[in-house]
Amino acid sequence: MAHLLTPGPAALAQHMIRMRLALMRNSLRGDNASNLYTGVSLGLILALATIAVAVLWPAYLPLTLAVWLSGWIFGPIFIGGGSEALRPEYFSMLPATPGRIAAALLAGAFAGPAPAVNLIALLSLPVYGWRFGPAGVLIGLAAAVTTLITMVMISRVIVALIGLFVRSRATAAAVGIVTGTAIALCSNGWAPVAALGGTDTTAWSQVLVRVLPSGWGVAAVEAPWPLALAILVANAGVIALLLAAWAGLLSRRVVSAARGGVPPRRGTPRPFPTTSGARIVAAKELRAWWRDLVRIQFLATAFSYAIVTPLLLVTIDAWIMVPFTGLIAIVMAAATSANLYGADGTALWLTLMTPGAERADVRGRQLAWLLTVGPAAVVLSLAGTVVSGQTWAWPWVLGLLPALLGGGAGVIVLLGVISLVPGTDPHKRGGNPLSTGADETAETGLAWLVLVAVPATALPAAGVILLHPLAGIAVGLLTGALSIWGFGKIAYRRLESHGIDLLNLMKHGPAPEADKPTTADLPIQHRIGVTICYLIAWLPLFPQGLAPMAMKIFGVEGPVWFLALHLPPIWQWPTITFMIALGLLMYGYAILIPMRLSSSSSATTS
């Protein structure tokens, strides 16, 4: 293979592009094809919307392009360090310089749908340049190409930095804090902007979005042509510097020791406690939570999101979310722990080879998760309620806290054995320690399921609190204990009966089922509709439906960002009802359409 890839930079890049296209072509089966088609469709819609912004609202074009840049920056962080189809480790033995390998990998990075969609969005620059004549169009075209290359290079450098420098608990936690803060800003970042307000802030933000790399194209279009050429040349120089930095990072990553956790201490290792059963499993799991960089990052993401989200709303003097900081942390920590067994890889064989160890394994994992998440969640809940001064929230915090802790500890082990997503063994994760090697789409879907299932376990306590606060606290304790016991019992019974199947799934992946219909077998319009419904159905159901309904019931003042509360009182309840019904209908469509496909396929077969 080496003699094929070493003739020259052009041939090397050509081979990388062909390999990337072959990998993508061979993976377009089943749900992967459906997800790709849906993602491309949504991307094209957003790209056309960006061009529409350049035509109708040109003043907001730099801000819109900054959103695209943020996607390239935070997207790899959200999916665990980025999805790398062509890893640099694959080409470490080739007789080529790091610069040539980096340039070829960069060419392969453009052989995909994401850069093509982004290029369509960047055609908004020549559209915007039409206002400045033919020279503006030409400069806009050149700026579109350089901006695209810059965005992709920034993304690749960030992925390389993550893979190289996240080698300790502190750096893994830092990445998690950045991730949680970015998610919080995406959902409630409008709050500090609204709190600042004013024309000075607007002028400052207009300068900022042009200083970012995504705004250099707009600045070049608006500038006189000598300055525009200078901006384009400077952009090309930045691309060269990024390429050189990426080549250096890749070479260090290839020669550095790849590990997915913290190395053991030198000297005599700490012995495990002289115990057995669930407690020894809990001790092992606590060490895993303390040493595995992926778990550390996930926990930091959950708690940083839970802390930053209420603080953003405090900037507009909305303290309603502060007492529930710990509750948010519990739900997010459960969502990031959804693939608890899949993250351990094939280590399950140790449990299966020990007679009767399944029950102890499940109970030990539950205990370790409670000891890891529970104390911090309790402190955040009590401190948030005291600091906020929201005395009405005490029954809700004291009732929902044990219910959610129990629900989280029960749901994660149950889904861990029922909906396991195969991942790479921790010692085989490669040069990117924050990537589990699992299917990011499947893991994301599992996390969304936990985000719905864990709050559902607290609904009985919430209903009783409305009637009698003290009884609601008792019900919260009871439902939490029942969730731990009941879900855990189902989980270890499942592990006893299907443990070999789970181990085979983790080792070899899911077995192909030729006759089983999937979402990819739906017509293209239904495929797109199902995915869109899963992506956005939570918006009308939770933020625009259930949240304002709760605020109306408890008499909380302030419309915040809820549409219904901005309307006249006579229209508020109808709007809330419509939003809840819309969200339920979207979820119903997303669930029932594939079920209808499966039932019709079964009828045809019989």
Automatic annotation (TrEMBL):
Keyword annotations: Membrane, Transmembrane, Transmembrane helix
Segments passing through the bilayer: 34-57, 63-80, 101-125, 137-165, 172-191, 225-249, 293-313, 319-343, 367-387, 393-421, 446-467, 473-492, 532-551, 571-592
Name recorded for this polypeptide: ABC-2 type transport system permease protein
Organism (species): Nonomuraea muscovyensis
